[in-house]
Amino acid sequence: MNTSLKNVSRETDFCVIGGGMAGMLASISAARHGAKVVLIQDRPVLGGNASSEIRMWIRGAHGAQNKETGILSEIELENIYRNSTLNFSLWDSVLFGMVKAEPNITLLLNCSCADATVENGKIISVTAWQLTTYTWHTIFARYFADCSGDSILAPLTGAKYTKGREAAAQYKESIEPETSDSKTMGMTCMMQARETDHKVDFVAPAWAHVYNTHEEMNHRGHDVRNENWWWMELGGEADSIHDTEELRDELLKIAFGIWDHIKNKGDHGADNFELDWVGFLPGKRESIRYIGDYVLTQNDVSDGGHFDDLVAYGGWSMDDHNPAGFHHNGAPTIFHPAPSPYGIPYRSLYSVNIDNLFFAGRNISASHAALSSTRVMATCAVIGQAMGTAAAICVANKLSPREVYQTKLSALQTMLLDDGCFLPYHARRIPECSKNSSVNLSTEQKEILFNGIERPNADMTDNKIVLEKGSSIDFKLTNPEQITSLRIVFDFDFIRQYEKNGNHKRFPMKCATLMDFEPLIVPKTLVKAFTVMGTDEKGTKATIFETTNNYQHILHIPVEKTLTELSIRFDSTWGATEVSLYSCDFV
User: Fold this and answer.
1) CATH code of the domain occupying 6-166+285-418
2) 3-state class (DSSP) for residue 553
3) Distance between CA atoms of 420 and 77, rounded to whole angstroms?
4) pTM > 0.90: yes or no
5) Separation of CA 91 from chain center
């Protein structure tokens, strides 16, 4: 570190390196649970592979009923509400706003972690260089999390890690090679096209590769309307960290060459399409992975991940890209089957040998085979929320990450469920004060509302109750009680039955911009206007909360009053004829 330049020293509870979806959700969840957080991101925008700089679609568990919730669905609904045309600059602003809204987070953008100090197996501080201010930032923290993807803290701290493909015999994994190697999945520079109402010419740069035939492109796709060009992939046979700049240069030659082929080497239905954007920052799939107290394997995924310490889940296929990438003369990936959902254990989210180091994202403690499924961003995001919540427990109780597993696992799972996360094979525990109250629902409705399952079943049957608009749920308590907060989970239309844009049913992001694109809509099933009333022990009834523009589906409403009655009236939706709820209770 050059001491002639400006130096800033900071102290915090929790320092997160990497502002992709995993690092963002780790930071937000930890901050909301009381931890002071410094989030270091080496780019000017948040979101990592999902940001405007890379533009990969957020994908996760297969199956409509397995859609990821928690903070990720909060972000999704914010984006639908504010950014119905799916503009990537507005998407960046949604992510930026989510982080900046948390008073417990200090965000350092354009800031790259460059060094770390370790004493007796614990990280004391990290030092980062902020390009825009020519400033060194040294952050002293009690706990650290590496969500950088490329695991920058591994070489800086001596944390144990691995790289490449394990031999099949190591974990008895059928999809791995007979002999281990250092090969990984590669990286991609994405492209986006825009459809116009007129013919658009394209002149390729002189340095672009030339592909005269489909065969020269190894028979890769031409679907301009629905393609994000993920198969333009290199780096699996190189060093996926240190060779990135050279690989980027080659990927750009491929990208512009492919667009030249599509526009100028035959009729591919693209006459009216223009090249709208090309990413100069590669989106990475794999580099190095940490070793935790547990290594998740192919067999764990295939068996459904029934872990006692389950804190997150996946459900994407084991999508194992060939290391040769674009140069492989065959299928660019093999989709090995995986159940959806399967559980991911907490023990895979902290270091086996650095006492205060967490990690989340594509660098968790997993074999190459398991990583081929867990690496997709929605899965990385829910892993991040779980890890950040665990970090907050560490901060509050002065525990190590391992001690959370040993002594606070149930508390961690309870917090995640209360925050709207889905944990397979678990139901949320309903507060006793809610269950013991008299409520104006039928026995069947009350059983459904209090079953702790806040999404459709695998066969898409519902765990929700349906009420008429204008009706209310009225709780009457046996004795006056101090009510801290009210929790409501509305139906945000898991199957997106009202959404006409098929590609956006999974997550509201787009690749090509098409002439027939229709702006997204807030799910019609969400309740838009509702009022919360409370009656105190003197019989005085007063409004506690009222809104006419709700567009979120999980709400925690502060009450902080001693009450004998609590009533929630549901006045209107975003278009549905009835009101649908998965949960409504208080503590």
Assistant:
1) 3.50.50.60
2) coil
3) 14
4) yes
5) 14
Q: State the Cα–Cα distance between residues 575 and 528, nearest whole angstrom.
A: 9
Q: Which residue has the tokens 């400033």?
A: 135
pLDDT, residue 1, reads 67
Q: How far apart are CA 158 and CA 140, in angstroms?
A: 18
Do 44 and 56 form a contact (C-beta atoms < 8 A)? no
Domains in the chain: boundaries? 6-166+285-418, 187-284, 432-491+526-586
Axis-axis angle for helices 377-397, 71-82 (nearest 10): 120
Which one is the CATH code of 432-491+526-586: 3.40.50.1820, 2.40.10.10, 3.60.21.10, 2.60.120.260? 2.60.120.260
Range with the poorest average pLDDT among 17-21, 80-84, 513-517, 563-567: 513-517
Secondary structure string (H, E, C) spanning 177-244? CCCCECCCCCEECCEEEEECCCCCCCCCCCCCCCCCCCHHHCCCCCCCCCCCCCCCEECCCCCCCCCH
Domains 6-166+285-418 and 432-491+526-586 share a fold: no
pLDDT of residue 2 exceeding 80? no
Eight-state DSSP code of residue 157: H
